[in-house]
């Protein structure tokens, strides 16, 4: 049905390495591969195998879980996107349950990190690549902050309103483009 590769860390791993929970859910215990160093595994490549046909309205969703934390969605593959390299932003071990309470009790045995894969409705998933979406959001915020700071340097105050020159957006955009052309590293400063 599917396989995974941990870039620079493993050979392709097929579904038989995962523990099948039921018809639509599989778990990979990271202790099998890296022990407690699971958080050093930063990416996973998941791919559908040629002979498997996933319905167009379904996806293979990928989740990660640090010891003692809930599962966190990181991305998915579909028949239209049969492979993906997903970042693994491991949650802090012993994470909170949303109420601020730790999920581990004093007598709980230490848990291992896991990767979960499940067949889910595509329409119910928030994004196919959560980390890339957050990266784009941070980029947009940094560009907006740059524009705001530029505009603020030309602002005047009229009562409770800020007044800026009519051509401020054109001036900012030209300056932004010129700087990007002169300094290839400039735009890299916006990416996180």
TrEMBL record:
Molecular function as annotated in GO: nuclear import signal receptor activity
Origin: domain of life: Eukaryota
GO biological process: protein import into nucleus
Limits of the Hikeshi-like C-terminal domain: 136-188
Classification via InterPro entries: Hikeshi-like_C, Hikeshi-like_N, OPI10
Domain Hikeshi-like N-terminal: residue ranges: 20-123
GO cellular component, one term: nucleus
PANTHER family named among the record's database cross-references: HIKESHI FAMILY MEMBER, PROTEIN HIKESHI
Record-stated family: Belongs to the OPI10 family.
The protein's name in its UniProt record: Hikeshi-like domain-containing protein
Organism (species): Lupinus angustifolius (Narrow-leaved blue lupine)
């Amino acid at each position: 049905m599917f396989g995974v590769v941990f870039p620079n860390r493993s050979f392709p791993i097929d579904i038989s390495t995962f523990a099948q929970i039921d018809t639509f859910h599989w778990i990979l215990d990271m202790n099998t591969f890296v022990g407690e160093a699971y958080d050093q595994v930063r990416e996973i490549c998941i791919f559908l195998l040629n002979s498997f046909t996933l319905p167009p309205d379904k996806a293979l969703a990928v989740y990660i879980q640090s010891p003692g934390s809930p599962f966190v969605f990181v991305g998915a593959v579909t028949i239209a996107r049969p492979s993906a390299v997903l970042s693994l932003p491991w949650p802090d071990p012993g994470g909170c349950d949303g109420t601020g309470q730790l999920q581990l009790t004093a007598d709980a045995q230490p848990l291992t990190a896991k990767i979960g894969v499940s067949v889910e409705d595509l329409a119910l998933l928030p994004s196919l690549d959560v980390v890339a979406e957050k990266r784009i959001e941070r980029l947009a915020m940094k560009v907006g902050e740059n524009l705001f700071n530029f505009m603020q340097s030309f602002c005047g105050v009229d009562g409770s309103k800020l007044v800026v020159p009519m051509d401020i957006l054109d001036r900012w955009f030209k300056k932004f483009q010129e700087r990007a052309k002169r300094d290839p590293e400039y735009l890299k400063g916006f990416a996180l």
